[in-house]
Amino acid sequence: MPRLQLGDWINSGVNWLRDNLSWLFDFISSVVQGMYDGVNTVLSGPEPLLLAGILALLAWWLRGLLPAVLAFLGFALIDSIELWGEAMNTLALVLVAGVITIVFAVPLGIWASRNRAVSAVIRPVLDFMQTMPAFVYLIPGIFFFGLGVVPGVVATVIFSMPPGVRMTELGIRQVDAELVEAADAFGTHPRRTLLRVQLPLALPTIMAGVNQVIMLALSMVVIAGMVGAEGLGSTVFQAISSVDVAMGFEGGIAVVILAMYLDRMTSALNQRVSPLARRALAKEKAKALSGMKVLHWRPATSVAMVGVVVLALVAGGMSMFGGDDEGPKVSANVGKGQSVNIGYINWDEGVASTFLWKELLEQRGFKPKVQSYDVGALYTGMAAGNIDFETDSWLPTTHAAYWAKYKSKLENLGSWYGPTSLEVAVPSYVKGVKTLDDLEKKSSTFKKKIVGIEPGAGEMKLMQDKVMPGYGLNKNFSLVKGSTAAMLSQLDRSYAKKEPIAVTLWSPHWAYDKYKLTKLKDPKGAFGKGDRIDTLARKGFSKENPQVAKWLKNFKLDEKQLTSLESAIQDAGKGKEQQGVRAWLKQNPGIANKLAPVPGGADQKGKDAGAAPMIGYFPWDEDIATTYLWKNVLERRGYKPEIKQYDVGSMFTGMSTGQVDVEFDGWLPVAQKQYWDKYKKNLVDVGSWYDKTSLEIAVPSYVKGVKSLADLKGKASTFDGKIVGIEPGTGEMKLLKGKVLKEYGLDKEYKVSDGSSPAMLAQLERSYAKKEPVAVVLWTPHWAYSKYKLTKLADPKKAFGANNQLHTLANKSFPKKFPEFNGWLKKWHMTEKELASLEQAVQDAGKGNEEKGVQKWMDAHPGIVDKMAPVAP
Amino acid sequence: MAKLRAERLYKVFGRRPDEAVARLESGADREELRASGTTAAVIDASFAVEAGQIFVVMGLSGSGKSTLLRMLNGLLEPTAGAVLFDDDDLTALTPKGLREVRSRKISMVFQHFALFPHRSVLENAAYGLEVQGVPREERVRRATEALELVGLAGWEKSWPDELSGGMQQRVGLARALATDADMLLMDESFSALDPLIRRDMQDQLLQLQKRLKKTIVFITHDLNEAMRLGDRIAVMRDGRIVQIGTAEDILVTPANDYVASFTQDVDRSRVLTAGAIMAEPSEVLGTTTDDGSTLRTEQDVLAAAPATVTESTPIIELFRPCSRSGVAVAVTGDDGALTGVVTRARLLAVLGEPDSPPDGAEPPAGDSPDAPGTAKKVITGA
């Protein structure tokens, strides 16, 4: 049997079309894209709930009150699972594809119904369109229209066209021949017969076809998601490729809600537009006049229109006057709005590094634009100067051909990651398999299978041609062909069950971050040497943008950083890459400044850079927070601060002997008066940075009738005769026991329990949760005031004494030893709000993560470093 | 002058229709054609309809009568032959001209009413006017009038599916009348109705016809209906018109066995008239009456006759008189003069089946089967 080169012919045909009809495809592409953008803008513009209201109103008009309520709830659910944007993208895609389909399908169906020859030609074509696997359309779709919405729409149109044509033809043919003859017998023009008799009577069937079209279009969105059409399809596809059940389910539910809405609405639309169905409806109404009238009442068309218009106006108004959402926080305006074009290849590490730089450059005041390209286009674009730089060049091997061709027009800014590698990986719980040789011996453990990826991938070719023969794996193993997504989901399944599995993988890959995997060693080097990942820029870029080029030249990520970044982006989901990057930056405080240090700005070294002040601190919230804050700031200024925790007594002793240079939490003139008085000849008061302090007893606000210390009298039973105290020996406890209780005559009734601040706070937390009365020893500033609603008991007799201020105290030699730091501290001041939020941030970050908490707070307060530690330009 | 004339109409469905017509003209029959895949629906049909007449085409299903009707207003284009309406050849008109004729001059009433379900009764009745482009107000006025005419005043706002079959067909009739067309084509218009309602509708049609004097071509498969309505009747079989004549002609002198078998179930006593069966007065001259006197002159006959009737009196009214007397019933003309007599024997004879004509005596369809006098001759000979 001779081999017919059918596929090749189609292929060359497609190529010919692409080369010769590109103007047509470009035209189609821009029309479809324009339609999509228009519809999408309208749908995505208004507040989600307002649009949900509009959609619900339509449901009310079409179907009645109950469906309207359900529709609203459904859309509210979509909003609440944060898929609103995607759902609207999908809705726009479905509407555009649906409209295009109907515009073609209905006239075709009419033509077919009036002409047997046309019908005979169209029928097999429709069969072909409908039975051809929808994926197949995507391949030429991408060829002709590139990635994105357009090939998705085109594939959807082709796929959903047949029922539209068929039902139209059927509907018109079904119209009673006698009616058509009657129209004819009265001398009606055929066109008029079509418009006034056939179409109105065929409308129910045609509308059923429209319904089918819409539903098929919706079923195509997931597939469209694979070619980069944004929306729920992309979400679901993302979920599949990252084996994310939660995301997959949410995406799926949103698709279902949309599907149900569209299905019910299009089928109900028939009742509004088709005269026959209207007639049937009127009859039914006349019959069922009694009963649940309210549920069946529907607004008249005009009323519904007015409602929709009003809501739409409100929506328009709101989006016009409503504030824009949060943009990037510009922490140092180095770029001054200068635009930078970054290109990338849609590979995980390319996406990760590109969006990392997008975020970094935005933070630095640049206006970066990112755009994905295929490899060839990326190099061509860069050589032509349209793209400034890209970060995903696999050299010296993979991209060698491109580099050789364009290197005269490019600059290599160096490699930021490497080496990359291809490998076979097994979960770490599979013991005794460390190399490919080990694998060969354990074929039965792995059920003689290595789970591979797309058969076309270079790695698969290497596996088959070199690796498997090289290690004798081809005898006992078969390489399973599939897809990256399938491989990852298989890995996830096996990993969850702790079953042995061997997969083809490559580094960097986020799977290494998510799972514990062993990369099997390749002692024979069958996979070959790995590439580096280089950053390339167009010629002349480093001259025009020396700062960015400098950052890029110093750009380095290790595998852990890169895979965790990829993982964070993966978790954020498609279209939210930058949020993923932000999340990762938060987990890695300080890295932004490492990657893109600001020249002469926030991170300029101080005059005394390199100095190493020893900072002591108490285990009190305000002191922990401020100490870590200063540590961060000093490190940015090139200092090498050390910090150490002390209790009050040893702190003062240490400071007077010079072991401790400085501490920030001197409560003066009252609380620490005794220590100050004792050691002040060896100390210096640098200044007060906070003056809103007070000592007090606090009770939860839900305890009524207790506003001042005097109110406590006689209420011992309410509080169990107990005031929850803190560390004995602190000034406040001494004051309380020695003076305050006596002043208010509470010493007989109440006992102050000794303990610790954490214990006191835990007790407060417990009582607060149970709404039990509790009285605690507290002080201001304290984060407890921002976390709970507490009443500070008034102290009319001033028994707690005058308010303290928080002073920075230091060893006598401090001002001379650290003149710059001393200067900064003298001018340092914090507001109550700043301090409370800082404490809260540190508290939220949790013990051991103080640095992250501080970094988070600093990120929320851009410019704080310059304010605290100004450096003369 | 005839309002409508059909001249040698042929309609052949299938491939190479012209060739088929040529074969038919040279004597091939329908079965031969069918073997070669073509269907001759109407073969060599010629007739004329006078203005104000109801012309009934009667035949069983498949006889080609509906096809014939649709050629009359151009819904089907004849394969050969011509349709002359007011002496204009409809087959020569452009599609536009043809539509003009259909919208203004020839309207149609259908078997299953063919009312538009998405239009109200009034809108249905006004449909033809809408096609003509009559302004809305006038349209509504004329459609309302037409509905009044058929007895449906007050139902304008109803919908077709709310009406009974008879009422729906009245709407169909109103729709046809509203256009003021001279000619109505009615395609088995009452066949789908219950017998009682059908009778009502027939009565109503006859009454309307008295006032409106339209030219009507009415298709039916029901001979009683044909006899009741038709001024003249054409009987079709296998695409050919086998006989054209008045009701009595067909009943009394069927052109062939087929027509005769058709007429079997007809209530002859109501269809036949005295004029159709009467004998020459001379036949009774010279006979003696029951009381012994001899009838010598026409005056004697008139005097002795148990009843005197006109030529159009159905014979059912003659039975009583004949049972009372042996003398023949006298039939008089408009001037009161004796034109014929009906004897008891003759009355009984015509109720029976007509004798089949001898083989080969079947008259060819086109051969003027409506020549007056034949009937009398046959009966006389019986």
Q: Tell me the overall shape of chain B.
A: globular
- Percentage of residues assigned to helices of chain A: 55-70%
Count the domains of chain B.
2
**Oligomer category:** heterodimer
* Number of H- or I-type helical stretches of chain A: 39
Mean pLDDT of chain A: 82
CATH class of the largest domain in chain B: Alpha Beta
Unreliable spans of chain A are: 322-328
CATH architecture of the largest domain in chain B, by name, is 3-Layer(aba) Sandwich
- Please, what is the CATH homologous superfamily of the domain at 339-419 and 532-595 in chain A? Periplasmic binding protein-like II
**Biggest sheet character of chain B:** 6 strands, mixed
Question: What is the CATH topology descriptor of the domain at 339-419 and 532-595 in chain A?
Answer: D-Maltodextrin-Binding Protein, domain 2
CATH topology of the largest domain in chain B: Rossmann fold
Shape of chain A: globular
Overall number of strands of chain A: 20
Q: Mean pLDDT across all residues of chain B, rounded?
A: 83
Q: What's the level 1 CATH class of the domain at 339-419 and 532-595 in chain A?
A: Alpha Beta
Percent strand of chain B: 15-25%
Strand order of the largest sheet of chain A: 3-10-4
Features:
heterodimer, A: alpha/beta, D-Maltodextrin-Binding Protein, domain 2, 20 strands, 12% strand, B: 382 residues, alpha/beta, Rossmann fold, six-stranded mixed sheet, four-stranded antiparallel sheet, 18 helices, 13 strands
Describe this structure in words.
The complex is a heterodimer of chains A (about 850) and B (about 375). Chain A has about 850 residues and is of the alpha/beta class. Among the domains of chain A are: about 340-420 and about 530-595, Periplasmic binding protein-like II (D-Maltodextrin-Binding Protein, domain 2, 3-Layer(aba) Sandwich); about 420-520, Glycine betaine-binding periplasmic protein, domain 2 (D-Maltodextrin-Binding Protein, domain 2, 3-Layer(aba) Sandwich), CATH 3.40.190; about 615-690 and about 805-870, Periplasmic binding protein-like II (D-Maltodextrin-Binding Protein, domain 2); about 695-790, Glycine betaine-binding periplasmic protein, domain 2 (D-Maltodextrin-Binding Protein, domain 2). Chain A contains 39 helices and 20 strands. A three-stranded antiparallel β-sheet of chain A has the order 3-10-4, with helices on both faces. Chain A has a three-stranded antiparallel β-sheet with strand order 8-5-9, with helices on one face. In chain A, α2 crosses α5, α6 crosses α8 (about 150-175) and α10 packs antiparallel against α12 (about 245-275). The longest helix of chain A has about 35 residues, at about 190-225. Chain A is globular and about 115 Å long. Residues about 320-330 of chain A have low confidence and may be disordered. Chain B has about 375 residues and is of the alpha/beta class. Chain B folds into two domains: about 50-70 and about 95-265, P-loop containing nucleotide triphosphate hydrolases (Rossmann fold); about 275-350, CBS domain Like. Chain B is about 40% helix and about 20% strand. Chain B is built from 18 helices and 13 strands. In chain B, about 45% of the residues are buried. Classes of the chains: A alpha/beta (about 850), B alpha/beta (about 375). The interface of A and B includes residues 176 and 179 of A.
